Amino acid sequence: MNEYFQVNRTNDISSVRETIFWKPPFAGFLKISTDAAFCSRTNIAKLGTVCRDSDGNVFFCAVAKRTEVFFPLQAELMAISYGLDIAREKGLSSIQVESDALLAVHEIEKGFSSSCE
Q1: Among residues 19, 89, 26, which one has the least CA distance to residue 53?
Q2: 70 FRET partner, CA 20 to 30 A, in 41, 42, 55, 62?
Q3: Tens digit of pLDDT per residue, the chain (117 long)?
Q4: Considering the entire predicted model, what is its pTM?
């Protein structure tokens, strides 16, 4: 562990990230937050999801491993789908979804808007 910190230690202020805090969903909604990690060498993705109400109470959290994943976008979309699948299995509705994968969110919004036309 010390080796990791020594290798990754930096004095370059441009590498410091802004801390982003979770924002609660609108009143009466639940928020599913998702993320994915993808390894192109093994074509394995790890998915994570958590569902909370506006007070931050956790309704569920889960992780999963998926094989035969070929792109980071595919992994992020799988994470979103995974969270929504669990919510549906639990009979939850009025869901907001949060993901740091802007391309995945854009693709979902694009597909949604074209299906509504």
Answers
A1: 26
A2: 62
A3: 444 444 445 555 455 566 667 899 999 999 999 999 999 999 999 999 999 999 999 999 999 999 999 999 999 999 999 999 999 999 999 999 999 999 998 888 888 665 545
A4: 0.78
For residues 81, 48, 19, 1, the Cα torsion angle rounded to the nearest 10 degrees is -150
Helix axes 102-115, 72-89, angle to 10 degrees: 60
Q: Up-side HSE of residue 51: CA atoms within 13 Å toward CB?
A: 21
The partner residues of 63 in beta bridges, in order of sequence, read: 48
The label of the residue with tokens 């410091």 reads 16
- Tally of CA atoms within 13 A in the half-sphere of 88 that contains its CB: 6
Provide the β-strand partners of residue 35.
48
Note the helical H segments in the chain. 2-8, 72-89, 102-115
* Dihedral over alpha carbons 71, 19, 98, 8 (to 10 degrees): 20
